[in-house]
């Protein structure tokens, strides 16, 4: 037992307990009201009525006591269920029992008080009875006296008659007698009045007691109604208790039934278990033996597999060796063809790019376009000069104004590949100020120029070759302005000098120049941005500084053949030259003339170097300017050079355009001879292919 049934829920039990407590409280209040009423009546009413009322109230009290005991009994009955059901209800019952005990003791106390009041009422009744008796006696005495006085009157009349006949003395006596008679008569009247008042008082007392009786009757009716309600509530509680008990019983039966079912099921399963257990045991034993044998079997299988794998691997490595050999041959062949192609194109290549006419160029006079390209001939260009005289130029490649940055770079790309292979390469942009040199070399963020594209290609080539070659790329950047060299990768832009390397190799050397090793294209992009920023910063105080300075980006690519250990040294010089306009011809003076002379000294020196190379002279005047001095090892014989000549298409610039194109034509005629690859064989001996 002791099963908590959901029907007889905690909340319903709480509700029952709460209703019982409420009933008891109501009863208690009712008793207290009645007792108050009783004491009030005792003080107000006469003895006889009070007596009756006391009797009534006592009876009422008795009936209330009875109700209480019934409720208590009901509570005790209810307490049986909770004891079986749960400890919460037991506690609740305990509380109720305590409460009932408290009520009983309070009721007893009230009963004692009632008895005391009864005694007091009896005494007061006795006193009132005494008083009434005394008053009745007094009335009787007064009536008797009145009777007596009435009886005396005829005697007075006789006296009066006697006086009439007898004497004046007797008349006086008669007057006195009359006076006394008068007094007696007054006394009688007052006594009568008193009597009437007493009668009136008695009538009022009767009326009052009648009222009280009515009230008592009303109270009795009320008590009856309450009693009926209480009885009803008790019946209701009884009914609910029975329902709860029945529900709890049915629930326990159901629960018991389900437990029984479970028990039977368990029993069934228990009986079915031993055979399963036996099967499992045999399975386990067989598995154990399998596991024991498995390691032997597994070891043999692994050995077989190992043998197969090593055989396959040796086969593979043989095949790989063949493949690698083939690949090497292929690469060598590719390089050879590439070299042949570049050589066929010429190791010095002259490209020309015609700048498109932009909005900002249209504010001057002479806006007509005088430079035209030939859609059928990628090398031809013609300039209309004067009246109908046109000059035709033939260069390695001419880019029309709408040519894209990518198209220009495609022409340059083979040179970048050569640099990785170990060649020294120089690419420079030449042309008058504003003709688009910086645009072609640096470009914009959205549309980068040769510099960024070349470096991107360089790193992607390196990535492609990583299985056979390892490369170290380092970069430095300088600006030459007024023949002064500044490091564009140092913050303060310190001035630098060019010297011969003290190691006796005759190589050039710039002490203090920052040479930064770069691992990725992203890194080099940051350095390019830094160089651009520094060039702008250094030039802020000088008018048209950037137009008059040469910017050089120098990249060294050291390669190591992972198989043979051979080492290559490739160099790539990317140069954005200063404006090539003939300032000295325009009558510049002082500082401006000096500046123009210095700028043009570099450009003139470049022209001289080109001229000497063209004439295959023994002495090439590299040392005539810092620019040619720096470009010495990538511009001369055995190297690869590309010059991008930038020209404006507008009539207003025709003079400078003609100059630039004539210079380009001269460069075109230079023969640098076959390019030499800078490679050191694995053993350390220097060798040029
Ligand atoms: N092919 C082109 N397409 C669009 N805009 C161009 C092109 N070439 C040059 N420009 C624009 O023309 C202007 C001048 O070009 P840029 O600064 O490159 O000339 P520059 O020759 O380097 O001049 P400077 O000698 O003064 O440095 C720039 O605003 C540039 O963006």
Automatic annotation (TrEMBL):
Superkingdom as given in the UniProt entry: Eukaryota
UniProt entry keywords in alphabetical sequence: ATP-binding, Cell junction, Coiled coil, Cytoplasm, Cytoplasmic vesicle, Cytoskeleton, Membrane, Microtubule, Motor protein, Nucleotide-binding, Phosphoprotein
Entry's Gene Ontology cellular component terms: adherens junction; centrosome; cytoplasmic vesicle membrane; kinesin complex; microtubule
Stretches that traverse the bilayer: none
Main location: other
Molecular function terms, GO-annotated: ATP binding; microtubule motor activity
Positions bound to ATP: 431-438
Domain Kinesin motor: 347-670
Protein's cellular compartments: Cell junction, Adherens junction; Cytoplasm, Cytoskeleton, Microtubule organizing center, Centrosome; Cytoplasmic vesicle membrane
Membrane topology category: Peripheral membrane protein
Coiled-coil region: 93-247
Cited InterPro entries: Kinesin-like_fam (IPR027640), Kinesin_motor_CS (IPR019821), Kinesin_motor_dom (IPR001752), Kinesin_motor_dom_sf (IPR036961), P-loop_NTPase (IPR027417)
Stated family: Belongs to the TRAFAC class myosin-kinesin ATPase superfamily. Kinesin family.
Biological role stated in the UniProt entry: Minus-end microtubule-dependent motor protein. Involved in apically targeted transport. Required for zonula adherens maintenance.
Identification of the protein by name: Kinesin-like protein
Source species of the chain: Umbra pygmaea
Taxon lineage: Eukaryota, Metazoa, Chordata, Craniata, Vertebrata
């Amino acid at each position: 037992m002791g099963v908590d049934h959901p029907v007889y829920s905690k909340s319903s039990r709480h509700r029952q307990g709460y209703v019982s407590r409420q009933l008891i409280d109501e009863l208690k209040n009712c008793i207290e009201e009645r007792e108050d009423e009783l004491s009030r009546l005792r003080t107000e009413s006469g003895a006889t009525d009070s007596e009756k009322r006391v009797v009534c109230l006592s009876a009422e009290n008795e009936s209330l006591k009875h109700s209480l005991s019934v409720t208590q009994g009901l509570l005790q009955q209810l307490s049986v269920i909770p004891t079986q059901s749960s400890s919460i209800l037991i506690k609740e019952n305990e509380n109720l029992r305590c409460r009932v005990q408290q009520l009983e003791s309070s009721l007893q106390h009230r009963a004692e008080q009632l008895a005391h009041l009864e005694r007091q009422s009896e005494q007061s009744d006795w006193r009132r009875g005494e008083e009434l008796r005394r008053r009745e006696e007094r009335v009787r005495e007064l009536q008797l006296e009145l009777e007596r006085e009435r009886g005396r009157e005829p005697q007075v009349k006789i006296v009066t008659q006697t006086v009439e006949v007898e004497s004046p003395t007797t008349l006086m006596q008669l007057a006195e007698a009359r006076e006394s008679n008068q007094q007696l008569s007054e006394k009688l009247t007052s006594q009568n009045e008193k009597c009437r008042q007493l009668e009136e008082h008695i009538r009022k007392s009767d009326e009052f007691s009648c009222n009280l009786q009515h009230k008592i009757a009303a109270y009795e009716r009320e008590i009856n109604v309450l009693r009926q309600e209480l009885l009803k509530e008790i019946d209701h509680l009884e009914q609910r208790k029975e329902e709860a008990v029945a529900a709890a019983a049915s629930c326990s039966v159901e629960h018991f039934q389900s437990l029984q079912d479970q028990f039977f099921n368990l029993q069934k399963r228990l009986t079915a278990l031993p055979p399963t257990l036996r099967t499992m045991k045999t399975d386990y034993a067989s598995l154990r033996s399998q596991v024991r044998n498995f390691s032997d079997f597994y070891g043999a299988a692994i050995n077989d597999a190992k043998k197969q794998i090593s055989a396959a691997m040796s086969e593979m490595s043989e095949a790989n060796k063949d493949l690698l050999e083939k690949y090497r041959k292929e690469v060598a062949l590719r390089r050879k063809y590439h070299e042949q192609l570049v050589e066929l194109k010429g190791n010095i290549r002259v490209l020309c790019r015609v700048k498109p006419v932009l909005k900002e160029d249209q504010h001057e006079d002479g806006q007509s376009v005088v430079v035209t390209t030939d859609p059928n001939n990628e090398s031809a260009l013609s300039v209309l000069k004067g009246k109908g005289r046109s000059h035709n130029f033939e260069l390695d490649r001419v880019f029309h104004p709408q040519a894209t940055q990518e198209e220009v770079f495609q022409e340059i790309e083979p040179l970048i590949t050569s640099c990785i292979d170990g060649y020294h390469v120089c690419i420079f942009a030449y042309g008058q100020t504003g003709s688009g040199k910086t645009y072609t070399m640096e470009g914009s963020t959205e549309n980068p120029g040769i510099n960024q594209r070349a470096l991107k290609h360089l790193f992607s080539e390196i990535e492609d070759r990583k299985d056979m070659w390892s490369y170290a790329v380092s970069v430095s950047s300088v600006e030459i302005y007024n023949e002064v060299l500044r490091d564009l990768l140092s913050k303060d832009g310190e001035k630098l000098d060019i010297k011969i390397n003290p190691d006796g190799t005759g190589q050039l050397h710039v002490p203090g120049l920052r040479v930064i090793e770069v691992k990725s294209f992203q890194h080099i992009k940051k350095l390019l941005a830094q160089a651009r920023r520094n060039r702008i910063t250094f030039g802020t105080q000088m008018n048209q500084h950037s137009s008059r300075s040469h910017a050089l980006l120098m990249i060294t690519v050291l390669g190591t053949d992972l198989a043979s250990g051979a080492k290559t040294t490739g160099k790539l010089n990317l140069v954005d030259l200063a404006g090539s306009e003939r300032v000295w011809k325009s009558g510049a003076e002082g500082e401006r003339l000096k500046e123009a002379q210095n700028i043009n000294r570099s450009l003139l020196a470049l022209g001289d170097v080109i001229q000497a190379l063209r004439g295959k002279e023994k002495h090439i005047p590299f040392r005539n300017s810092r620019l040619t001095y720096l470009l010495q090892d990538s511009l001369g014989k055995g190297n690869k050079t590309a010059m991008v000549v930038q020209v404006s298409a507008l009539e207003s610039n025709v003079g400078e355009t003609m100059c630039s194109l004539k210079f380009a034509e001269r460069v075109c005629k230079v023969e640098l001879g076959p390019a030499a690859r800078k490679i050191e064989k694995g053993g350390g001996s220097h060798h040029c292919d």
